[in-house]
Amino acid sequence: MYKSLIKPLLFLRNPEKAHHTTFNLINLTFNLPIVDSIVKATFELNDPKLEREVFGLKFKNPVGLAAGLDKDAKLIDELAMLGFGFIEIGTLTPKPQEGNPLPRLFRLPQDHALINRMGFNNGGVLKAVERLKKRKSDVIVGGNIGKNKVTPNEHAVDDYLFCLEALHSYVDYFVVNVSSPNTPNLRDLQEKEPLKQLLSAVKSANDQKSNPKPILLKIAPDLTNGQLDDIVEIVRETGIAGVIATNTTIDRSVLTTSKEQVEAIGAGGVSGKVLAKRSTDVIRYLHQKSNGEFPIVGVGGIFSAEDAIEKLEAGASLVQVYSGMIYEGPGLIKKIKKGLLEYFSR
């Protein structure tokens, strides 16, 4: 029903307006009597074979929702009904910010891709905390944290530490995001020394808590092999729990959409099917270079169970979806889990 009826209607609308419409409908309907039971019965698929223990957390299944869809933790309980093993909120920043000017989200149907230059638009970490305090589901929640646009890189650590402190009691793991292409100079923090200093500070603050949470690093797919070697070294030296590979790409050469159309859209990170190969290559490289020393969460171009299996075979322990949900619909999660069950049963 999604691909034949709902998706065509949503795709008639501006992508960001369609997103808000979808969220409003989910918020209005999923918690109605009987509807919640129907949703759960439709999308849930639980099996001990799908369970995974990764960086000390027990996941009901290895399929998660990537950061960006529920930036402000507005629909955690409702999205959990779709059968995710974990949900990542954010990217959250200390202060609310509007993000980049509209329009800033674009579909490329020919490539089953999206281009976004959202710019960490969010209501601020403290608003998200208030919502997290009220959540009812036991789904694992990750907090993806970043810096405000106005914060200079030399003070970026203060923003990450603020978010860590605010969220610590309400999320199960943290993701340090320095890889979005849509905040000016943010990716400069991926350079070896600034990144090592940032992660060391976040890890140190986390370790002082009575219940430290796993700290992960989200990286760009556009890093060179030399930079990926640095990532492996930094993970080892700082002792963080793992890596999320990957964020969106600034590489437009992977697109088949006309050059004129892409240039008219302008700046932004590309996600979707076109990212699948590169993200898998990054996962495989990190896994081999590190000898599997740390877990990797694979994200990028997952539109089917086969895509998820490819990431796992490359060395990922868990996977996340985003663009695949937009193009394939919420039934994608159950399809992936069915395929994984068959794969794990071989």
Automatic annotation (TrEMBL):
Its EC number is 1.3.5.2. Substrate binds at residues 71, 116-120, 177, 182, 247-248. It catalyses: (S)-dihydroorotate + a quinone = orotate + a quinol. Pfam families: DHO_dh (PF01180). Residues 50-342 form the Dihydroorotate dehydrogenase catalytic domain. Pathway: Pyrimidine metabolism; UMP biosynthesis via de novo pathway; orotate from (S)-dihydroorotate (quinone route): step 1/1. It is found in: Cell membrane; Membrane. Gene3D superfamilies: Aldolase class I (3.20.20.70). FMN binds at residues 67-71, 91, 144, 177, 218, 246, 272, 301, 322-323. Keywords: Cell membrane, Flavoprotein, FMN, Membrane, Oxidoreductase, Pyrimidine biosynthesis. It is an enzyme of class 1 (oxidoreductase). The active site is at residue 180. Signal peptide: none annotated. Its main location: membrane. One of its GO terms (molecular function) is dihydroorotate dehydrogenase (quinone) activity. It is a peripheral membrane protein. Binds 1 FMN per subunit. Belongs to the dihydroorotate dehydrogenase family. Type 2 subfamily. Catalyzes the conversion of dihydroorotate to orotate with quinone as electron acceptor. HAMAP family: DHO_dh_type2. PANTHER family: DIHYDROOROTATE DEHYDROGENASE (QUINONE), MITOCHONDRIAL (PTHR48109:SF4), DIHYDROOROTATE DEHYDROGENASE (QUINONE), MITOCHONDRIAL-RELATED (PTHR48109). Monomer. This is Dihydroorotate dehydrogenase (quinone). It comes from Algoriphagus aestuariicola. The gene is pyrD.
